[in-house]
Amino acid sequence: MWLYYFNNLVASFPFFLKGVWMTITVSLLSLVFGTILGFGIGIGRISRIRALRYGFSLYVDFMRGTPYLVQIFIVFFIFPEWGIQMEAFQAAVFSLTLYAGAYISEIVAGGISTISPGQTEAAVASGLNWFQRLRFVILPQALRPILPPLVGQYVLLIKDSSVISVIGLTDVTRVGWLTVQRIPEGLMVFGLVGLLYFLVCYPLIRLSNWFEKRLSIANWTV
């Protein structure tokens, strides 16, 4: 019986590959847009404009303080009641982008806060405007502490993308749920699902570890 299930699972493997492709596509788009959003919010959170800081802080607190499952339900099921209609793919990318942006903004703001105020004061004394200070002084130095946790956050968000299966997208998790209805050997089916997620995330895990080692060596050298 086990061999029969295994053969059926092998026959279903092309569907798992399609699910992996959907997971990668949604995750990649969300991480690109989420990184842009996160950097914008992270920079905004160090602004001298109090209303801007409070507004961004409220957004971040809400996104971090509520489950992603609730957020995607709001986007996919509640937004249409307000006249904002999205397909499942669009809703998945949009909601995961907002979710990613909140967490990435915390990493960015934390990295920027490590920069000595003396660096900014020196840049001001050199006649650099706000954008030039940000581009040439603050961000280049902040990237060192930002990159390791940022890549680690990418791994977490790829795993969180499994939630998109609840709105009907055939990502690798949903393919697993559909397959287990035909192959009632849950450990085998979801063992494969877990392995596929691991294969997608492992290069990023290695990259995060590499950044951490490089950063620690650089700090030790300094």
Walk me through the structure.
- This protein has 222 residues and is mainly alpha-helical.
- It has one domain: Orthogonal Bundle (MetI-like fold).
- 81% of the residues lie in helices and 0% in strands.
- It contains 9 helices and no strands.
- Helix 4 (68-78) crosses helix 5 (88-113), helix 6 packs antiparallel against helix 7 and helix 7 (130-160) runs antiparallel to helix 9 (186-221).
- The protein starts with a helix and ends with a helix.
- The model has no long low-confidence stretch (mean pLDDT 86).
In DSSP terms (H or I, runs of 4 or more residues), the helix count works out at 9
State Rg: 21 Å
The beta-strand count equals 0
Q: Quote the beta fraction.
A: under 5%
- Per CATH, the architecture is Orthogonal Bundle
Main sheet characteristics: none
Instruction: Tell me the overall shape.
Output: elongated
CATH class: Mainly Alpha
Low-confidence stretches: none
Helix content class: over 70%
Give the termini distance in whole angstroms: 62 Å
CATH topology description: MetI-like fold
CATH superfamily: MetI-like
Q: Would you summarize the structure shown here?
A:
Helix content is 81%, strand content 0%. By secondary structure, the protein is mostly helical.
Outline the fold blueprint.
Blueprint: H1 2-11, H2 13-44, H3 50-65, H4 68-78, H5 88-113, H6 117-125, H7 130-160, H8 172-180, H9 186-221
Defining traits:
elongated; 222 residues; 9 helices; MetI-like fold
